[in-house]
Known about the structure:
Bound molecules: 5-amino-5-deoxy-1-O-phosphono-D-mannitol
Distance between the termini: 9 Å
Number of domains: 3
Number of strands: 26
CATH topology of the largest domain: Glutamine Phosphoribosylpyrophosphate, subunit 1, domain 1
Helix content: 25-40%
Oligomer: single chain
Amino acid sequence: MCGIMAYIGKKEAYPIIIDGLKKLEYRGYDSAGVAIMNGSLSLYKKQGKVTFLEDFTDGKKTNGNLAMGHTRWATHGIPSDYNAHPHTSQSGRLVMVHNGIIENYEFLKTLLKEKGFNFKSDTDSEVLVQFIEWYQVKYALTLKEAVRRALQDVEGTYAIVIMDTIAPNKIIVAKKENPLAIGLADDGFYIASDAGPMSKYTSEVIYLNDEEVGELNIDGSFSVIDLENNEIASIVTSISKSNDNYDKGSFDSYMLKEIFQQPDTIKNCISTRLDVANNNIDLKAVDEHKRLFKNTNRIIIVGCGTSWHAGLIGEYLIEALANVSVEVEYASEFRYRNPVINQNDIVIAISQSGETADTLAALKLANEKGAFTYSLVNTPESTIARHSDSVSYIKAGVEIGVASTKAFTGQVTLLTMLAIKLAIIKETINPSEVQKYIKAIHQLPTLVEGALKTKNVIKKIVKKLSNNNNALFLGRGLNFPVALEGALKLKEISYIHAEGYPAAEMKHGPIALIDENMPVFILATNDSALNKLVSNIQEIKSRKGIVVLIKNEDQIISKELADYVIEIPKVEEILCPIISSIPLQLISYYAAKFRGCNIDQPRNLAKSVTVE
Ligand code: M6R
């Protein structure tokens, strides 16, 4: 994972690097470091977040117009100052930041040790910079040539920025499977793991392709070659100036801000897509390939984590409304199991970041096998978006909290519209049903606002339960994936062990866990599953479980069945996953808050998982 930011040009580099690293912390926040060249090299590294690095450099020399920075998610070696990037070579001449994994690092390290190289860190990245220096010195090569030749012997993935302190008028960059964007501006080059941090400086970006090496000079010239030394004419892409707001505003965390943004982000997602006049859903990505979508009999959805949960909801909706068979796969499994893909199958990749390594690899596999690929992503110009045959954006705006909230409800909203759209194309739905659903989706933002009003009730309930170390989330039908999502949310930010189950599965094992210390959150908002669910609640209550019932305002369920009740607005049943997930987001937020956890940056995690 890890985030890279670098600059070479006319401006002071350090503030650009720090600002960029803060925007890249979604890729990891175990440690941060910066190297600035100004006559001599100033190198600062600190375990922890970018703000710790900022404090550490306070009052120290940071001026210079060539610098690189890194925010790390540890793979090889514990989070520490000495494992933080940038790493230097044996002589101290080369300095490098790296995102990726050098798979044959042990082999290379042994080789280098035999040649007298010493290592100051436990990282695979240090091995790479040392290896490049070995090539450079042994064959008297320019840095660009040393990088090109060394990378031919490297197995694994990389996005690197490297400079030679003896020739500090250029930066060399290279990438394979990890993203690297180069922003072109009159004042210099901006290099980053994604285009976000540079979007306020430039609208022209080159996305380096795999196994390409670029040389960016301080005089504004640049060139790109591949590993075989062929010159590459890179394509310059236009990016839009980012209006994304990176402030928390009046909220204590990005997560809470993002939870409360949902009425607006859902409005954004639906506003140009609900075609009330024509009783239709406008999904350009589908309309442009209408025949393909009409003829498909099988859809495979791939994703990870929360996006996978959204995919499961998509499966329920698409099968029910459009009568198309849907399979939902963990991208990490799909990519390695030689899946059967038939002609006319459509593979849908779901991803907030658009950078998740496993989802990207699954998408590439689907492309190779000749499937039509369609992605539902939040981040514009992300790698997954760029590698898909077709794309629809979730339009939730930048999501910073590691726990996905507004992106999830955006994904589910988009999938709901997709299911209706497919049903229209395949003529499995009648116009009055379409009208009913469009009307209901139109009301969603208001209903989400209503669901957010449960905040204070939830705060009181969670205060009483936050010392329990386990929890169960149960739902049936469309609320089963929501239960999975509720459990994931709770464990990732509050470190409470939580599991999500289809309610009826309890008696096949998990019911053994129920006692007076087990809070059980039950999603009862889908009326079609209600009667069966009530029996499941009774089974839990009679075993002394603590029942927290999440129900619609108008549902009549005996209060005796529940220890606590959270009431949310009633919605059309196909939309219940969106409304039901709001209280679960608030439950995990308050649990993390009462337990004193870092809500936006939970331990061991990163927002975007760019390693497999
Ligand atoms: O960016 P993606 O949607 O591809 O990310 C997938 C998962 O890493 C992500 O949803 C993760 O599970 C979240 N932290 C959950 O809140």
